[in-house]
Amino acid sequence: MAKTQVSIDTNIYNIKAKDESILKTYGLTEQVVREISKLKGEPDWILDIRLKGLKLFYELENPTWGPDLSMLHIEEIATYVKPNSNMERSWEDIPDEIKNTFDRLGIPEAEKKSLAGVGAQFDSEMVYHNLEEELKSKGVIYCNFDEAIFKYPELFKKYFMKAVPINDHKYIALHYALFSGGSFIYIPKGVKLDMPLQSYFRLNAPGAGQFEHTLIIVEDDASLEFIEGCSAPGYNDLNLHAGCVELFVGKNAYLRFSTIENWSRNMLNLNTKKCIVDAHGKIEWITGSFGSKISMLYPLSILNGEGATCEYTGISFAGKGQNLDTGLKVVLNAPKTNLFVDSKSISKDGGICTFRSNVDVMKNAHKANLALSCESLMLDSESKSDTIPFNDIRVDDITFSHEATIGKISDEMIFYLMSRGLDEEEAKALIVRGFAEPISKSFPVEYAVEMNRLINLELEGTIG
Predict the structure, then answer these.
(1) CA angle, residues 113, 234, 175, in degrees to nearest 5
(2) Does the global pTM surpass 0.85?
(3) Which one in 94, 252, 351, 373 has a CA-CA gap of 20 to 30 Å to 144?
(4) Which of 232, 214, 340 has its CA nearest to residue 286?
(5) In degrees rounded to 5, what are phi and psi of residue 192?
(6) pLDDT digit string (tens) for 197-245?
């Protein structure tokens, strides 16, 4: 198996459930792809997509502009891991080993307190999905992605692969060859959800890949807040995450997509997210990137309607042995469109944080308004932080501002806090938490608490 050195810790996210999977397939061959499709009982048109993805994966090259991915050998990855559980509607029906893992992560408790619906994925399959009856009566759909293929075929075909094409890059081709699990959400016209929906993705098996697909449609005048959580225990085997998110926001609609990713440091996180926004619609990305050995994640928003808006608020924290290459891509393709970016990164112990932005302001984006702010904080002289913006502006009647700052913790500030009774580590932690506070306030309360807990674990060096 592929190996990478990791430090195993004892924090809450490092729970290792006993591996009771009933099937594992390794590598990426036509036989593997056909076997996955057969197990799921999929129609031929889905198998055709998988086989096309297989072909493209071997034709396309690794990106040359980001972190080195040469350590990944797909033949050594368990590309499909079937847990010993069916998809359940009752939490009590889930096998104890899996249920206990999610219980300790707080997922059922979060559902009781603040969620209108929740889904939980364990390795390659969703094991639980639930939605309040009141929302079902309004026409809201929230189900396992694989289930949607059979239950809502016309709606599924209308949107599937329309935001993220199969030839987008090498690892989206891999995703389409192997996709399994994920969530399908449909919010009908005019329906506004007062409480968020959540899906939680747990990769438990060592040396495995996870390839979930999330598809969300928010129709005209509707609104949704969706929360995505991700975690995995630490192993010495290299794990891979290559999921996909496709979002569609209608006219005057609103979608907030919040993510806290806390993968273990043996994880390659190569996720793809894209959103298409219609007139006066709004997509709001809230992102916290922790853990993982390498991350390459750049949510793309295509603002196709007049007055459409994208807001991006994100934070990443890279420690020893981590290379977090994140950012966003935006296409402003209509008049009076808006882009607002607030990005922060923290690096320590030689960690690398890179923020990339790719902004295309098209010829018809008259009177667009753009404001980007990127701040980086390095906690020592070994760490590295870069901001790499690329702006292609094809119209001259817009408002555009871009601010980027990179700095280290001030010795004077630490001295001042120590003079007030804090030790050096406490002083540094206080500064970091203050730096991250504007981002944490953007999350729902429960998840702001989780983000602050992750920051504390990073500062202590205990995230594995």
Answers:
(1) 80
(2) yes
(3) 252
(4) 340
(5) -115, 120
(6) 888 877 877 788 999 999 999 999 999 999 888 777 666 788 999 999 9
| Token couple for 86 | 């069916």
For residues 319 and 322, what is the distance between their CA atoms, to the nearest angstrom?
6
Angle at the Cα of 246 from the Cα atoms of 241 and 247, rounded to 5 degrees = 135
Q: Where residue 103 falls among pLDDT bands split at 50, 70, 90?
A: low
| Distance (Å, whole) CA 82 – CA 379 | 41
pLDDT at 100: 62
Interval 145-168 mean pLDDT: 96
N- to C-terminal Cα separation, the chain = 19
Sequence spans of domains, the chain: 12-297, 411-464
- Separation between Cα atoms, residue 418 and residue 412, nearest integer Å: 10
Residue 376 to residues 4, 317, 354, 381, 407, Cα–Cα distance (Å): 27, 10, 9, 13, 6
Amino acid identity, position 170: K
State the Cα angle at 320 between 269 and 203, rounded to 5°. 30
